[in-house]
């Protein structure tokens, strides 16, 4: 091996060692703690899916009780188009009639869920796929309001008794955002927001962290300036930033979910860019992080 290659290898090994040393205190502090990760939507890019699964496996391997909650809007949209059914949104929520609900259940609980489980297991991890109907994990009532949303549900109860034995076995639960309907929709499937589902699971599991993987850097002070990322934010500032017009549009429901988690006792919530390879590891195990961290 040439002297130059030896030098390059030495530098590369030094960088790896420095990362591991920096990660050590985080690994120690998170051991046997629960972290809930929400993954889905536009962050589910084929180019980085494998890296996300590797991150989740590593988290589990170092003793973190890791729960992966997922959505799958683009996949649902693709199947609706194939069937010739037009999507309809009301205040940012998908109107879900009976036919659309059948497709949502098929896509989320079936293909997307099992594809993620397969990716984790292909990368050397162990995972079990489930949805909110299984074990009545999520019980929900249909959202009632001035505008009819169809079979869209609001979670009323989360029963994690089906999750804890899985975590105790060192297996990663992969959960899709479909709920068991109660009330007038007893026994029917209801479509629920995956971010809220993740936040409510995090609360009931008394999680250390909730991590929302999305398709933006985090909260930007100036939406047009990528260098204006707000790296750390107290929960009390969320409403202030919203009133100032800094938190707007799609970031409003994201921060609402973080607020639900923090108010429910979760120590920290993170909004990170899931399009970046190994974003989870960088956010959790480095001093700099990669997104926005919200804490009480």
Task: Describe the secondary-structure layout.
Layout: H1 3-30, E1 34-39, H2 46-61, E2 65-70, H3 73-82, E3 89-90, E4 93-94, H4 98-122, E5 127-132, E6 138-142, E7 153-158, H5 164-168, E8 172-181, E9 189-191, H6 194-204, E10 209-214, E11 232-234, H7 238-243, H8 251-263, E12 268-273, H9 279-285, E13 292-295
Parallel strand pairs: 1-2, 1-10, 2-8, 5-8, 6-8, 10-12, 11-13
Antiparallel strand pairs: 3-4, 6-7, 8-9, 12-13
- Calculate the mean pLDDT score and round it: 91
Give the biggest beta sheet: 11 strands, mixed
- The run of helices and strands is HEHEHEEHEEEHEEHEEHHEHE
How many beta-strand segments?
Answer: 13
Shape: globular
Indicate the proportion of strand residues: 15-25%
Which structural class best describes the helix and strand composition?
A: alpha/beta
Describe the structure.
The longest helix is centred in the first third of the chain and has 28 residues, at 3-30. This protein is globular. It has 296 residues and is an alpha/beta fold. α3 (73-82) packs across α4 (98-122) and α6 (194-204) runs parallel beside α8. Helices cover 41% and strands 22% of the residues. The strands form two sheets. Strands 1, 2, 5, 6, 7, 8, 9, 10, 11, 12 and 13 form an eleven-stranded mixed sheet that branches. The chain has nine helices and 13 strands. The protein starts with a helix and ends with a strand.
